[in-house]
Design a protein that fits this description.
The chain has helices at residues 2-13, 15-29, 31-36, 53-67, 77-81; strands at residues 46-50, 72-76. It has 82 residues and is of the alpha+beta class. It has 2 domains: 1-41, no CATH class; 43-82, no CATH class. This is SIS domain-containing protein.
Length: 82
């Protein structure tokens, strides 16, 4: 049990560094520039999918976006498979 908590704590404590590394990668590879082009595409609805905590996070984002006038749908990834 102690090893699990250590692993969990390590994961939590390294999130900021890992997010920075991810952003650096997106910038270095040009992917961020490509993703920003998505802003130019008109859309009617955003679809979020996730499992577990990702699904919970998507639900929270969906509520926030709906409150700000962005139509969206949150669906469990498992539902997309069937």
């Amino acid at each position: 049990m102690e090893e699990e908590m250590t692993s969990y704590l390590e994961d939590v404590c390294t999130q900021a560094v890992e997010l920075r590394n991810m952003l650096d990668w997106y910038i270095k590879t040009g992917m961020l520039k490509q993703m920003n082009k998505l802003r130019e595409i008109p859309f009617r609805k955003v679809v979020f999918s996730g499992m577990g905590s990702s699904h919970y996070c998507a639900a929270s984002a969906g509520i926030y976006l709906k409150q700000h006038g962005v139509e969206n749908h949150v669906i469990s990834t498992g539902e997309l498979l069937y």
